[in-house]
Amino acid sequence: MIPENHMVVIFGSTGDLTKRKIIPAIYQLIRKEQFSEKCPIVCLGRREYTTEEFVSHLELSQFIKNSEPKILQQLSRQIVYIKQDLEEEAADSLRRRFDDITEKFGCGPNKLFYLALPASVFSQAAGIIQLFVDDPGWQRVVFEKPFGDDLSSAEELNNTITSVLREEQIYRVDHYLGKELVQNIFTLRFHNEIFRWAWHSDAIDHVQITASEVLGVEERAGYYDKSGAVRDMVQNHLLQLLSLVAMEPPLANNAEEIRNRTGKVIESLIPVKPDDVVLGQYEGYTQEHGVDGASQTETFAAFKVYVDMPRWKGVPFYLKTGKKLDERYADIKVVFKHNYELCKTGDCDQPNIIVIRIQPDDGIAIAFNVKRPGRSMITEPVLMDFCHHCYFGPNTPEAYESILLNVIQGEPTAFARWDWIRNSWRFVDHLRATAQAPLQYPQNSTGPAESDGLLKRSGRRWIHGEISPRRSQQQTQILPVML
Ligand SMILES: NC(=O)c1ccc[n+]([C@@H]2O[C@H](COP(=O)([O-])OP(=O)(O)OC[C@H]3O[C@@H](n4cnc5c(N)ncnc54)[C@H](OP(=O)(O)O)[C@@H]3O)[C@@H](O)[C@H]2O)c1
Question: What stretches in the chain show pLDDT beneath 70?
Fold first, then answer.
């Protein structure tokens, strides 16, 4: 279905995000006939470019793999570059340009403003957007993460933008929420009765949420050294995953109710104790180009947290993220309890585990026990493994396609509401203040050895990527569990 026409206005269009994510996502929407040729893509930047020069700066054929020339031409025709410094007086000239473009494309008054800018200049951009917020049609504004650096800066930013925009015009992006497998957590839990009833402290022993990266800071040192793993990954992505895993079933299938439920989880997080958090820094980090030689910024964080809700009484959630680790993956592992009666007799089976694999090779796997052939009752764990792209094909939407489409359709479920952001910063500010200085860890490892202690103390261990190696192109398969 082609949605109604609208103008897309990108602030910070000369940056990396526009080139690598936003423009390729619009290409895919055009290809799938979800973005009309009547929708101009107005790219604002402070550099001196003609539209032709800007289009060549985008390096479309490098960033859009296997592109179709016809669609590329269509995309290029829809791009208009306008030099606009955020500090310059914009009112009359920008409105005139927008009016001309609206008339040329025949697109109507709806506008999607995308702020692909550093958060430090969000409020300046909001000052320009203010000129258009009361125009007819819809006017929606997308803010990229990070939304603030801590609770007080997030509050300040929120006060600034809500003095200009209404909450329903604000879309705070966490691109993890645009990922298919993240959206599938909701489906897995609430559209499958077998999981719905097992999703409880009676059955679940603990939950592990991991985002493990093999890359270091690369070209992002300037940003990352001021941010660190907790603010870059935990405050947004990992806590979003936690809130989807732990939320109560929504009473209605609408955005506000779902956001009430995820918000309640973040509000219910019990502040982390000092012994339950380990920060790390990979060896050689301070020698990286752009990093302060005495930096104490963490590139690794692991912690244990409880959710103060009856469903999760006594169930620890272990969260972990880091750079320069030995494997690249992001997943959630829901680890079920042992059958204690069998364990008492010395016949302890492996626990059932549900693995929600977010990347790479997104899918869902379930480890369960089967009897080995023969007369004995010896059991063996196997893995039933659903591969998302093998089944649905490689063309499922990328996160940024979903983000754009959701904003165009006015669907806010996959965007963070202010109360969620406020409570996540409150939790994270406390965690950062509680944690000891980062411990060094070797590159290509699983992080500081002390992070193993978080689980070992209660007889558990991290289950790394090994449980669910997905190398086959089959749609579903049964594999041995490698624990
Ligand atoms: N890149 C990603 O994959 C990614 C992922 C998640 C979130 N984000 C977020 O998305 C936003 C943009 O990221 P990015 O990677 O595209 O950053 P970037 O490559 O550094 O580009 C930033 C853009 O903002 C412009 N800009 C910077 N300071 C400005 C100022 N004072 N006044 C006016 N314009 C200014 C830059 O203009 P010039 O070109 O003229 O410098 C450029 O167009 C950031 O908030 C980032 O945290 C990025």
Answer: 1-3, 90-91, 395-396, 465-483
Same domain, 358 and 210: yes
Task: For residue 301, give both structure tokens.
Answer: 């964080």
Q: What's the domain count of the chain? A: 2
* Domain interval for residue 272: 177-480
H helix count then E strand count, the chain? 18, 17
In whole angstroms, how large is the CA radius of gyration of the chain? Answer: 24
Q: pLDDT tens for residues 69-88?
A: 999 999 999 999 999 888 77
Q: Which is the catalytic residue, given 6, 206, 237, 388?
A: 237
Say if CB 31 and CB 71 are below 8 A apart.
Answer: yes
Query: Which pair of structure tokens corresponds to residue 81?
Result: 């570059």
pLDDT of 319 reads 98
Tens digits of residue pLDDT in 85-118 = 887 776 678 899 999 999 999 998 999 999 999 8
Give domain status of residue 112, yes or no.
yes
In a domain, 274, yes or no: yes
Residues in contact with ligand 1 (CB, 6 Å cut-off): 12, 14-17, 20-21, 45-47, 86, 116-119, 121, 144-146
Model-level pTM greater than 0.85? Answer: yes
Residues in contact with 475: Cβ distance below 8 Å, sequence separation at least 6, in sequence order: 386, 387, 390, 391
